[in-house]
Design goal:
27% of the residues lie in helices and 24% in strands. The protein has 456 residues and is of the alpha/beta class. The protein binds manganese (II) ion (MN) (2 copies).
Length: 456
């Protein structure tokens, strides 16, 4: 069964709104290729709209627009509602980390006249997709004196780019016998960064030349890599995809497409009955662990601060009640049905590009292992909100039973006794260097998120 297509319902005015929104999203996706860049972009956007850091506040009242940032890698944006926070919030939670290749701690080496960076991939990548494509390097280098050097090379059209080389087909007969997971191995994802020696006779002269450049442009010494967070990502801007421009091709839709639509929903919905929140989190692709992942107590800490600001005091019971009474959408992408790989999908329970925001009642693997199986009562409430607001929505599973599996942050927030369900945008070629989404789905997710935070 093919789902109802969203495109046919837009009049000229809606279509213009949709396209304008997608241009804004393309700018976000093109600019933000690391968690830190997402947080920085979000802070700049919301401060222009009058949002204040909660650290600068003495009290809170309905209609206040506030935010909190955790270690430059998470952000929570709130519009305070008419009801007390203890009554619960309406939260949109998305992740802003994406699969990529990280630079190791001791990365720079020279091999037969090439300077190379040793790397360690982050998240679930198909390794053979990352060779021979233009790459950029984004991140920070933290110096011993406390200075943080921002690095971004490869995005400006005049910048050099980086690459991971691959074997020519003429000599690849033996390599082509290997299975897909072995054809490019983890340790072979090293990045070529130079080939020009200072002096042909000198030992490691190519590496020394690169170090000289790093010193000159960034004041970085080789030891500074130890305290760096450098991410190798595909270079270039997000682009319209298809002759009809109906889709967007770009790096990191998972999950920045849901992060941006969630953030904009909170900004554009204005003051609601309940306090609304966009929660953008790190480390989802590696298990949501650590201080900046969804498992961190940070979200609860921020709620505790809000309760304190709203009431002039704080007690634990207020926080527990707030969590129990919270409605959340785990805003994360779904695997879109791909006619080239129809065998892995079960058509009646798959999502299709252009058919709208997708709800996953559960994810997980095998017998739903590791999933957050959302309450049907909660799904019924959300169905009503989507229908009442003429939102195109569909439901999906991640592929056929026993073919594979996956997870999101839904169960982690569910563990805090919130009502949670996964809801997001269908993606083609998920986790590949270039992923594809439908503009209609981006817009339906944005409108669906607005309806949810206003009415849940
Ligand atoms: Mn995701
Ligand atoms: Mn993912």
């Amino acid at each position: 069964m093919y789902k109802k297509n969203a495109w046919s319902k837009y009049n000229d005015q809606e279509m213009k709104k949709l396209m304008t929104f997608c241009e804004d999203y393309k700018d976000f996706l093109s600019t933000c290729k690391t968690e830190r860049e997402c947080v920085k972009y979000s802070v700049e956007l919301i401060e222009k709209l009058g949002f204040k850091n909660i650290n600068s506040l003495k009290s809170l009242k309905a209609g206040d627009k506030v935010y909190a940032v955790n270690r430059d890698k998470n952000i929570c944006v709130f519009v305070i509602g008419d009801e007390p926070i203890e009554n619960g919030l309406n939260v949109l939670g998305a992740h802003i980390d994406s699969p990529r290749i990280d630079i190791k701690q001791n990365p720079l080496y020279e091999s037969e006249g090439y300077a190379m960076l040793d790397a360690h991939y982050y998240g679930g990548i198909v390794k053979y997709q990352w060779v021979t494509i233009r790459l950029a390097i984004h991140g920070v280098v933290c110096k011993k004196d406390g200075k943080i050097v921002n690095v971004c090379i490869g995005e400006n059209p005049d910048d050099p780019v980086l690459v991971i080389t691959d074997l020519l087909p003429h000599l690849a007969a033996e390599k082509m016998q290997k299975s897909g997971d072995k054809v490019i191995e983890g340790e072979d994802l090293d990045i070529t960064v130079g080939s020009m020696g200072l002096d042909g006779e000198e030992k490691e002269s190519v590496k020394k030349a690169i170090l000289k450049l790093l010193k000159e442009f960034y004041d970085i010494d080789e030891e500074d890599f130890v305290s760096a967070e450098l991410e190798i990502v595909p270079e270039g801007k997000a682009r319209d995809l298809g002759l009809d421009r109906s889709m967007i091709l770009g790096y990191g839709h998972d999950d920045r497409v849901c992060a941006y639509t969630s953030l904009r929903a909170v900004l554009d919905a204005g003051k609601c009955k309940r306090t609304t929140c966009a929660f953008l989190v790190d480390k989802e692709e590696v298990g949501s662990i650590g201080a900046t992942g969804a498992h961190s107590t940070w979200f609860q800490n921020v709620l505790a601060e809000l309760i304190n600001l709203q009431n002039g005091n704080y007690n634990d019971l207020m926080l527990r009640r707030a969590l129990t009474n919270t409605y959340m959408l785990s805003s994360d992408v779904s695997a879109a049905y791909d006619p080239l790989y129809r065998g892995v999908f079960e058509k009646n329970n798959a999502c299709f590009l252009g058919s709208g925001i997708t709800f996953n009642k559960y994810t997980g693997a095998r017998g739903k292992s590791g999933c957050n199986d959302a309450m049907p009562e909660y799904m019924a409430k959300i169905r009503k909100i989507m229908d009442d607001n003429n939102i195109n929505y569909q439901t999906a599973e991640l592929g056929k039973v026993d073919v594979g599996g996956g997870g999101t942050i839904a169960y982690i927030m569910g563990n805090q006794n919130m009502n949670v369900i996964d809801a997001g945008v269908p993606v083609l070629s998920m986790h590949a260097p270039q992923e594809a989404v439908s503009k209609a789905d981006v817009y339906e997710a944005y409108m669906g998120y607005i309806a949810f935070i206003k009415e849940a």
